[in-house]
Design a protein that fits this description.
Blueprint lengths: L14 H37 L7 H33 L1 H20 L8 H24 L6 H30 L1 H7 L1 H12 L2 H4 L2 H4 L7 H18 L9 H36 L3 H49 L3 H4 L13 H40 L1 H48 L1 H7 L2 H53 L5 H18 L1 H27 L13 E3 L3 E9 L6 E10 L4 E5 L6 H9 L8 E4 L5 E4 L10 H6 L9 H10 L4 H5 L9 H4 L2 H15 L3 E5 L7 H13 L3 E5 L11 E5 L5 E5 L9
Helix pairs in contact: 1-19, 2-3, 2-10, 2-11, 4-5, 5-6, 11-12, 11-14, 11-18, 12-14, 14-15, 14-18, 14-19, 15-17, 15-18, 15-19, 17-18, 17-19, 18-19, 22-25
Length: 792
């Protein structure tokens, strides 16, 4: 404890403590920003390549095309709607004016009224603020990480974002005071309320006449949308070279879907006016006007129904096409550079890519479906907001501002709480996959477990994995319940805002009930758009977890680091025979040499048997010869992969027919049925055809065939492939001595070079050389005739 004069305050109130506290808060904020930025980067890596080449385009260009697509859709809708109204007005002028007069008036206003006569400085500030805030946050993040930023962009964005933040904060506080204590607001803050009210409600052209002198009085909304349409179309034309290989198709489908979203949101905006007129007609007890508005109401719903149905179909279709492309891309990367082997922890790689099957099968399906859904939901929210905020603002600017303030506060709370939920969802996906893998492991090894009577132990292991799933899911339920509570609090509180704001004008007679009904409908639509995060927080958490797992998998398999995984990138020199000069054998990520300074060659039809105690590196040597593992020293020369075939102790059985099993990895069309029958007879498996007469029936071969039958089937595969060199890792361990002799005689007849691992003394007679490893790095190469199996 520090000794000194009392300062009259706690230690945590000292300037240094305050500075540390502020620094901690700033650090948390920047960490949150960095986390959000990382999540966006992951999302871009998964999403962009389908729509735009990833290597030739950056994220800003991708975002620019998305924005351009919105501009093109908005211009298309405005053009189609304007043409439709003009056509209907020319054919049925009275009916159009009677039933669609409001739409006609809105279209006419879009093409005639200048923007500055409608838009206030406050509304313009709301449009500028998100852009300035995002730019300033990105600049701060780049500065913090040591990157250069453009001063002409960074400092204006910082100044504008801070000024507008202060402006909105002051407006929010005064609006709250005006609702809770109107008398105090009018008496104490009258000098501030007046200018603020003008800032938010008076059009720019009226409040700032000098804007007219700049020539902006001629620019109407229709002309602005037309200019945006032309610029958006120009962007797509400029990017046309990058939209080849059918990359234009997803953009076209996405554009049609957004067009439908805009159409439905336009109908919803029109329904607010219909609700107002219908409510007033009912209050006035006007049957003609009431039924007419009901008819229009019904027509709107009938028009929206097929649009929504087609939108759902096209969305699902685009998701399916995207999933097909993404899965094929991942599968291609998975098999490229043997990533499936390098990143497999079961092969000693130390890889941390768990459950790749789930990531390529389930996660791709969930990602494409949810990514498209969220993208369209965001577009839907933006369209819903942009089409209804003007209606809400024209009725009550105070109500619109109160909704902004409330939605921002609730969304921030939900985002903060949702970060923990995303982490729990990530764990849940992994635990579920581990539990499923445990069950699959039991199924694949059912006979071995039965021989051991290992049911109690397997049951305990499966139960342990299940308990992990249940325990984490229980935590997930708790957090989801807490978020549900926050969600309900936010939604219930939002329901009171229209009454709190509009009760005074309704009671004073300044607003009729129809206006309140329209305001309530518009308020609900704008609320739905602003409460996007609140409504979707649980889905966003699950989606975030899925994105993290899938992007991590994609990054691992698409960029195998040759330095990190150098033990798997073998520099084998092509040759006609096996030659090792000064080579060494070690397991990946280990510095212990199992054998060193290996010097030998296998030429022509020579055959070498590798022997030694368990764990001395026999199988590891075969992996080096086969090119799976690298030698840290010397040189390894082997025939090309098509002329060298490796057969392990438990042969690989494909998911296919008997024909595919025999021909693997060659094309089945190269061999006739008679050829296949002859090979099966050579390896003494002709009885297999009695059990399975057809070569084309798919079976679960690892389960149906014994290990001995599988080993003979592997020899049949070897005879069909006819390589120059064969590498056998105890490939006859499950066979009797007579069958083993017969199979080796087949190799001698075909004059194949052989390197094999085995423990039976009977194998010596089929080999010319014996390589003995001692497990301490030493070795000796002896003629087979002089080697004594019993000497050690």
């Amino acid at each position: 404890m520090a000794v000194g004069p009392s300062t009259g305050r706690r230690d945590d109130q000292t300037p240094a403590a305050t500075s540390r506290h502020n620094g901690h808060q700033e650090g948390e904020f920047m960490a949150s920003l960095q986390s959000f930025r990382s999540q966006l980067t992951r999302l871009r890596r998964l999403s962009q390549p389908y729509f735009l080449p990833y290597t030739d385009s950056n994220g800003w260009q991708f975002a620019l095309l998305l924005l351009s697509l919105l501009f093109c859709v908005a211009g298309t809708v405005l053009g189609l709607l304007s043409g439709l109204m003009a056509l209907l007005g020319a054919i049925w002028p009275q009916v159009t004016a009677q039933y669609l007069g409001g739409v006609q008036g809105s279209i006419a206003a879009i093409w005639s009224l200048p923007i500055i006569t409608i838009l206030s400085w406050g509304q313009l500030s709301l449009a500028i603020y998100p852009v300035a805030l995002v730019v300033s946050l990105i600049c701060q993040d780049r500065l913090r990480r040591g990157f250069e930023t453009k001063a002409w962009l960074c400092f204006p964005a910082l100044i504008v974002s801070w000024l507008l933040t202060v402006q909105f904060a002051v407006s929010g506080v005064l609006a709250l005071v005006g609702v809770l204590a109107p008398a105090l607001a009018s008496s104490q803050f009258a000098g501030v309320n007046g200018p603020l009210k003008q800032f938010w409600t008076v059009p720019i052209g009226t409040l700032s006449p000098w804007m007219n002198q700049l020539g902006l009085s001629w620019l109407c909304w229709g002309q602005l949308i037309l200019l945006l349409f032309i610029s958006g179309l120009g962007c797509f034309i400029g990017f046309r070279s990058r939209l080849r290989q059918r990359r234009w198709l997803p953009w076209l489908l996405l554009g049609v879907i957004i067009l439908m979203l805009l159409s439905v949101n336009g109908i919803n905006a029109g329904i607010t006016f219909i609700a107002r007129d219908l409510t007033n007609a009912l209050i006035e007890r006007n049957p003609e006007l009431s039924y007419r508005n009901l008819w229009v109401y019904g027509i709107c719903f009938m028009a929206a129904l097929p649009i929504r149905t087609l939108q759902y179909y096209l969305t699902a279709k685009l998701s399916l096409i995207w999933r097909d492309w993404l899965t094929k891309s991942l599968v291609s990367d998975y098999f490229k550079d043997r990533a499936y082997y390098v990143l497999n922890p079961n092969e000693g790689s130390g890889g941390d890519v768990d459950n790749p099957d789930q990531r390529m099968a389930d996660d791709t399906k969930d990602f494409t479906k949810e990514a498209l859904k969220f993208t369209l939901d965001i577009f839907d929210s933006l369209l819903m907001f942009s089409l209804n905020i003007a209606i809400l603002w024209s009725i009550s600017g105070e109500l619109a501002f109160a909704l902004f303030l409330y939605a921002g506060t609730i969304s921030a709370v939900m985002v903060f709480a949702g970060r923990r939920l995303a982490a729990i969802n990530t764990d849940q996906l992994r635990y579920e996959a581990d539990f499923r893998y445990g069950l699959v492991h039991v199924r694949n090894n059912s006979e071995s477990i039965a021989f051991y009577s290992g049911e109690p132990e397997e049951s305990r292991e499966v139960g342990r994995r299940l308990r992990t799933v249940i325990r984490n899911f229980d935590l997930l339920i708790i957090w989801e319940a807490l978020l549900k509570m926050l969600q309900r609090v936010g939604i219930y509180g939002s329901n009171f805002i229209p009454y709190l704001i509009l009760i005074a004008p309704i009671l004073s007679g300044k607003m009729d009930y129809g206006g309140f009904s329209q305001a309530n409908v518009a308020y609900n639509l704008v609320e739905n758009s602003l409460f996007f995060i609140v409504y979707k927080i649980e889905d966003l958490a699950r989606f975030s977890a899925s994105v993290g797992r899938l992007e991590g998998f994609q990054s691992n398999i698409s960029k195998i680091d040759p330095v990190e995984y150098k033990d798997f990138f073998s520099e084998v020199t092509p040759a006609n025979s096996i030659v090792l000069k000064g080579a060494a054998v070690k397991t990946p990520f280990s510095e212990r040499l199992l054998a060193k300074d290996l010097n030998f060659s296998i030429t022509g039809s020579q055959k070498m048997l590798v022997v030694g105690p368990s764990g001395c590196g026999k199988t590891s040597l075969l992996r080096v010869i086969s090119g799976l593992w690298a030698s840290p020293t010397g040189q390894v020369s082997t025939p090309p992969s098509g002329e060298l075939l490796f057969i392990p102790q438990r042969p690989y059985m494909t998911l296919g027919s008997l024909r595919e099993q025999l021909c693997y990895p060659l094309d089945c069309d190269r061999f006739s049925d008679d050829h296949l029958r002859a090979v099966l007879k050579e390896v003494q498996l002709e009885a297999l055809l009695d059990r399975y007469p057809s070569f084309d029936v798919k079976q679960d071969w690892p389960r149906l065939l014994s290990l001995g039958e599988q080993q003979r089937l592997a020899f049949a595969r070897l005879l069909l492939n006819a390589p120059k060199v064969v590498v056998l890792d105890e490939a006859t361990s499950a066979l009797d001595v007579a069958t083993e002799r017969h199979l080796y005689e087949l190799l001698v007849e075909r004059e194949m070079a052989v390197v094999s691992v085995g423990h039976r003394p009977t194998l010596k007679s089929f080999h010319d050389l014996v390589l003995e490893l001692n497990g301490q790095g030493g070795w000796q190469l002896l003629p087979a005739a002089s080697y004594d199996f019993g000497h050690s």
